Predict the 3D structure of the following.
Amino acid sequence: MTTPRGQAYTESEIDSLLETIESVLPRCANEWETVRTTHASYYPDLGRTTESLKRKFASLYNAKKPTGDPTCPPQVRRAKRAWEEIKSLLGVVVDDDGMNIGSDDVYDTAEENESDRTDDIAQPPALSAASFPHQMSTPRVSRSAFRNQQSSQFAEMMQLMFARDAAEREREIMRQQEREEREERYRRERAEAEERREQRMQQQMDMMQMMWMTIVKPTKSDEKEKDQEVGKKKSGEYEKEQE
């Protein structure tokens, strides 16, 4: 949406523009785009372009009256002060006649003066504002309401971040508990397996002992019987000799 030629800036709109510029101190095209979007949030129906805002700001800080002059309008003093701060942030000496704002923003003075003369034409007092609906100032959005909205959005974003962090910590705790349970289960299974192995070894030892006993005992009994038979034979031979 473009602003119709000849639509003048109101005092409240100029104050709002200067307040935004003082807050942003634009030095490049991106920062001037921030100024435009912020200004559009307060005056959405005017459709001021970035070039229009730059020209209006340049017309204020290029005014010939010095800031120390008591007749210098407050808006001009504010614009000159903001322009000096912008130049100091840029770190270069800039000729005010060049109207250089940022590294690639140079304005044409003649076009600016012609545009400002057109923009600042006062409306005839005999005509009502209803006769010129395109020149009626758009109601300004409350700055405090805008800031409250931003604060509310920031608070919601922080709450979402905190909730996300809390959920991530809870998931990490659950993962840690699962790891500990797996390790405990693994240790328990290892202990049970070791116990079963020892039981099998004991059973094998018992079986080997039983087998050894079954092999050794008959051998001893056989030797005993042989000894008995030898004794009988000897006693029989002894009896024969006596006869």
Summary: The longest helix spans residues 143-242. Confidence is low (pLDDT under 50) at residues 94-137. Residues 55 and 112 are 6 Å apart (CA to CA).
